[in-house]
């Protein structure tokens, strides 16, 4: 099975406020995911056609984790942003200070070609495409999908991939994102 790099993941750079790596390329992550999926070393995601591959621990320290733990000392900023043309804007909350946490693990998020094709979001002809690289802070075993992404998915809005979530999944997401925020890239 072939895993390619979807253009959406390419936004994850040093200036994005998202997980990124200075030394590991997007092609490296896709190839790593492909090798692990060919060994059936993956977790099924939130719907059929979505898989999660855990990056080997040897590489985790090469990935930047953009999150800080929210405390009373953390200053937050909210701004209206748009992920890409054609999507509705949303309110993004970022930390203006704090020290980014160390990544304890990294998850590679893969979508199957037909799932991406539902909204014309496939950017290759490969069976699977890498769409996100997610660093999890040390001590965090599971990072829920963000509530904005869940909303897009459940309401089948532009930029969403049709899904339905339980009330517990919604509550877990809101609770997690009340404790962590990505740091504003200009403040690193």
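-> sequence recovered:
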């Amino acid at each position: 099975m072939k895993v390619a790099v979807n253009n959406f993941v390419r936004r994850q750079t040093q200036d994005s406020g998202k997980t990124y790596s200075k030394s590991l390329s997007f092609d490296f992550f896709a190839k790593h995911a492909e090798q692990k999926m060919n060994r059936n070393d993956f977790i099924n995601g939130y719907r059929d056609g979505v898989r999660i591959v855990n990056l080997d621990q040897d590489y985790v320290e090469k990935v930047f984790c953009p999150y800080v733990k929210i405390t009373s000392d953390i200053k937050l900023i909210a701004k209206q942003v748009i992920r890409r043309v054609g999507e509705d804007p949303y309110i993004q909350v970022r930390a203006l200070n704090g020290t980014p946490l160390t990544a304890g693990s990294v998850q590679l998020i893969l979508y199957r070609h037909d799932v991406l094709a539902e909204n014309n979001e496939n950017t290759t002809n490969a069976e699977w495409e890498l769409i996100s690289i997610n660093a999890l802070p040390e001590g965090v075993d599971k990072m829920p999908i963000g509530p904005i992404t869940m909303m897009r998915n459940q309401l089948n809005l532009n930029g969403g991939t049709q899904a339905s979530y339980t009330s517990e999944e919604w509550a877990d997401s809101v609770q997690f994102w009340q404790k962590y925020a990505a740091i504003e890239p200009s403040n690193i």
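The first strand starts at residue 3 and ends at 5.
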